[in-house]
Design goal:
12 helices; 441 residues; 4-stranded parallel beta sheet
């Protein structure tokens, strides 16, 4: 059947189609909860959706025709997805799809047609939503009956707009924020005890161009009792500013905890880049934290001891034991919402999380046009940054506290270790000839 409109109901289509879900970019502690939501959402419509496949390692798996049958997986393993972090269950990648007229896009549609894929759910960030929009448009242009729906994911919380009309917060951010709140609580105890020899602790948080994750460090201390300084990309402080601010803190309290965004300008790092062209800080020759530590120690602290630094790195997006229960549930629900949006509204949407007005935190799930999300970058709002650029305001704390609320997640323990989902990665039989993706050539 030809694709006739971006807004139409698939309830009227008698022929059952298959669905495919893929993940893209860096994972999160709750990405598999969204995967479970998509899968179980599809299972709610057996008259319309037959088999659900996954692209093994994201869009690379689609290009290589490496598809995993999710519908045949053990139900117990599917249940464990909710508390399985990162992307080990089906894999992800940083493969950049560029010109939508390229062979890669044609190959994607060929794979979908060959396997009767009528629904494509893409879990990812702003770059991924741009890809989803292009696939949706290309399918319509070429008369391919395909519904494409985005599922938001990023710990950076940088999708959308500062009016929060596109999305209130992204699945993954609540858990990353909770990780940092707990980390800073513990680091503060270490810093208190070791300040006579290690008075300054420097930590580097993820966030290339936005300060959402460094901001979450304040959630450890909403009463502002810790000697905590936050350096957001938005505030545009320099190393010299940081040095003077630390000196002032040391003069008053004798110790200081510094959280810097990985995008904080310290000069060249011997930068490496990922498949999307973004700086991959974890693969670069140096780190922002190390450069800050070196600068502080070389200039001198004027108190006994030295500055030390830590880079949690991928731990902040894969530590499931610290995941937010609110985040886990919302990630699942937005995955299920994506399925209902696909069936009721057709192609070209992303499922989204919004917040009802009022003092009580109440989230609800809706949809937004993919073109409004594609390549969007939301920075920390100016009015949520303190006048000196070293802290957040109470308005940010009010915004973020509800999404880290709740007790510990219900992690299954086996022989003293966490029990994660282990899906069969056996790929189905291929139907097309071998293809070499453009970036592999």
């Amino acid at each position: 059947l030809p694709f006739t409109s971006r807004r139409f109901s698939h309830y009227s289509i008698a022929m059952k189609r298959n669905a495919l879900v893929a993940q893209s970019g860096g994972p999160s502690p709750v990405i598999n909860s969204s995967l479970q939501g998509v899968l179980e959402g599809c299972m709610d419509f057996p008259d319309h959706i037959d088999t659900v496949f996954a692209g093994r390692h994201g869009i690379e798996g689609v290009l290589l025709e490496e598809l995993i049958n999710l519908s045949s997986q053990d139900s117990g393993e599917i249940r464990r997805l909710r508390h399985t972090p990162a992307a080990g269950a089906i894999g992800t990648c940083r493969y950049k799809l560029k010109d939508e007229t390229s062979e890669d896009y044609t190959r994607i549609l060929d794979v979908f047609v060959a396997h009767n894929i009528g629904y494509f759910f893409y879990i990812g960030g702003n770059d991924s939503m741009d890809t989803a929009q292009k696939v949706s448009r290309l399918a319509a242009d070429r008369g391919v009956d395909l519904v494409v729906t985005g599922v938001p994911k990023t710990i950076d919380n940088d999708i959308g707009d500062t009016e929060f009309k596109i999305i209130d917060h992204t699945p993954g951010y609540g858990s990353a924020a909770r990780y940092w709140a707990n980390l800073i609580q513990n680091v503060n105890e270490e810093n208190r005890g070791m300040c006579v020899s290690e008075p300054v602790t420097v930590l580097q948080a993820m966030g290339r161009k936005s300060g959402w994750i460094p901001a979450a460090a304040r959630l450890a201390d909403p009463g502002r009792e810790m000697p905590l300084q936050l350096y957001f990309a938005e505030a545009q402080h320099t190393l010299s500013d940081l040095y003077e601010n630390v000196r002032r803190q040391l003069a008053g309290e004798g110790r200081c905890i510094v959280v810097v965004s990985e995008g904080f300008d310290v000069g060249g790092l011997g930068e490496a880049h990922d498949g999307f062209g973004h700086i991959e800080y974890g693969a670069s020759r140096s780190t922002v934290a190390q450069e800050v530590v070196n600068f502080l120690n070389d200039k001198g602290l004027q108190v006994r001891g030295q500055a030390t630094g830590q880079v949690p790195g991928v731990l902040q997006r894969s530590a499931s034991i610290l995941a937010s229960r609110v985040d886990i549930e919302e990630a699942y629900q937005v995955g299920k919402k994506a399925v209902s949006v696909a069936l009721e509204d057709g192609s070209g949407w992303m499922a989204t999380i919004l917040r009802k007005p009022g003092k009580e935190y109440l989230a609800y799930f809706d949809k937004v046009d993919l073109h409004r999300v594609a390549n969007s970058v939301r920075q920390l709002p100016d009015h949520w940054i303190s006048a000196d650029g070293l802290d957040v305001t109470d308005a940010f704390i009010d915004y973020a506290m509800p999404i880290i609320a709740g007790g510990w997640p219900d992690i299954e323990i086996e022989n003293g270790l966490q029990r994660f989902a282990r899906l069969s990665e056996q790929c189905i039989e291929k139907k097309l000839s071998e293809y070499i993706p453009l970036q592999f050539r």
